Amino acid sequence: MKLKTIKTILSHPLNQNKKISALLTFFTRGVVIRLHRHPIVYPFVENTSLVVEKGMSSAELQVYTGLYDLYEMFFLMHYLRPEDTFVDVGANVGVYTVLAAGVAGSQAIAFEPIPSTYSKLSRNVAYNGLQDRAELLNMGVGDKEEVLVFSNSLDAVNHVISSGEDFHGDTTEVAVNSLDRLLAQKHVNFLKIDVEGFEANVINGAPEVLARPELRVIIMETNGLSDQYEFGQNYLHDKLLSLGFAPYSYDPFKRKLEKLATTNPQNTIYLKDIEFVKSRIQMGRKISFRKQLI
Question: Ranges for the Methyltransferase FkbM domain (predicted)?
Answer without folding.
Answer: 88-228
